[in-house]
Amino acid sequence: MPKYNLEVIPEPEKNTRVILVNINKIPVFKGQGDDNYYCGSCGFLLCEKIHRTQIKNIVLKCPGCKAFNEIRGD
Questions:
Q1: Do residues 35 and 67 touch, judged by C-beta distance below 8 A?
Q2: Separation of alpha carbons 69 and 8, rounded Å
Q3: pLDDT tens for residues 10-53?
Q4: Residue 18 to residue 49: CA distance in whole angstroms
Q5: Which among 12, 8, 6, 9 has a CA at the least distance from the CA of 52?
Q6: Which listed site, 14, 54, 70, 72, has its alpha carbon 20 to 30 Å from 36?
Q7: DSSP letters along 4-52, please?
Q8: pTM score, two decimals?
């Protein structure tokens, strides 16, 4: 299964991006695809078994290290 480390970005300015904050220590998204996305800072599994282009243009805040990870969708 392909593993993708997401790009860590600075905290986006308020009201400029969609930011998903997961307070639980589980993946934000789970699906039936072939790809896993991990935090680019600490390696926490953020998205499990999704299709590569299924999720686009959002930012995930890691519940482990609190880093902001960008999913571009390309």
A1: no
A2: 5
A3: 999 999 999 998 888 899 899 999 999 999 999 999 999 998 77
A4: 21
A5: 6
A6: 14
A7: EEPEEEPPPPTTSS-EEE--SSS-SEE-SSSEEEE-TTT--EEEEEE-T
A8: 0.89
Length of the chain: 74
Count CA atoms closer than 13 A to 13's CA, side-chain side: 1
Strand partners, 47: 29, 37
Separation CA 46–CA 48 (nearest Å): 7
Cα–Cα nearest to 8, from 50, 53, 49, 66: 66
Question: How is the chain split into domains, by residue range?
Answer: 3-71
| Structure token pair of residue 36 | 């896993």
